[in-house]
Amino acid sequence: MKRLTIGLAVLALCLSSCRTDIVYSQFSPISSDKWNVDSAVQFDYSIDDASVPYRMLVYLRHNERYPYQNIWLFVDNGARKDTIEFYLADDRGRWLGDKHYGFIEMPVLIEEEKQFPDTGRYTLTIAHGMRDSLLRGVTDIGLEIIRNGEK
Question: What's the domain count of the chain?
Answer without folding.
Answer: 1
